[in-house]
Amino acid sequence: MNSKIRPLINAVVSVFICFVLYKVTGFGLSALNIKGFLGNFIGELLFAIYGIVALLILKKIDVLKFKLEGFKEGLFAGGIIFVACFIIMLGVATGLIPVTAKASDITIYILQMLLIGVAEEVLFRGILQNSVMDYIGYDTVGKIRLAIIISGVIFGLVHLSNATLPGVSFGAAMQQAISVIPVGIIFGAIYYRSKKNIWTVIILHAINDFYTLIASGTLAGASQNEALNTRTNSVWGTYLVFGLIAIWLMRKKKIEALRMNI
After folding, report:
1. Which of the four pLDDT bands, split at 50, 70 and 90, describes residue 61?
2. Residue 116's closest CA among 42, 35, 182, 218?
3. Helical packing angle, 236-249 and 170-193, nearest 10°
4. Cβ(169)–Cβ(84) under 8 Å?
5. How far apart are the C-alpha atoms of 225 and 231, rounded to whole Å?
6. How does residue 220 score in pLDDT terms, banded at 50, 70 and 90?
7. Distance (Å, rounded) from C-alpha 10 to C-alpha 62?
8. Would the pTM count as exceeding 0.70?
9. Contacts for 179 with CB less than 8 Å, ≥ 6 apart
10. 70, 80, 81, 82: which is closest to 193 by C-alpha?
11. Is the per-residue pLDDT at 96 higher than 60?
């Protein structure tokens, strides 16, 4: 086997196994009647652990090393996420978006969002995107863009698995998967723009999921399935904007400026 493709195959297999384990964990928690905020928290905690174990097995644990380099630049590149979160929180403050959950549930929910950020960014940026980039190469802007797009597309398509949830149609899962693709590309571009500072995209991912799920009624009594259906039917405009932002973040001038430093 080509020695250059072996790490890519190992990365893809690792991501696939972690995601399957995550889904099996979800079914297991449901069977044990561990549901709601606590069940979701436990599921995401185990998902994050699966990702970290994958890093250890692949000898990529340095991906999680905290560093200041690129941190500020990454947060600045993801400024739209802060803006969107501010708008949603303004809606909460004015009562336009109801929040009825208990303080303890809200705390668990916030921790859950952070764990989602850790798990998904470790898998799709730390492992998958890095491996695709290493395989394709960094010598042209086009190759870097392609690696970012590939990881973003795969990130979106894995959300098709939500069709296995009770009450969620395949159409709703497909709509979510397609709408999540530009978000994945944005995270990939920000990861690159932050000089591969994984904590930048972990934080931005957590904030993005935080305000998105609040907007869908998660903290007002909506079930996971109701929240999913709400999100897939109401945020197309937002994700079209995100698509344009993804293109802006990957413009040639910015990619070229960083290409030789990675």
Report:
1. very high
2. 42
3. 30
4. no
5. 10
6. confident
7. 17
8. yes
9. 156, 232, 235, 236, 239
10. 70
11. yes
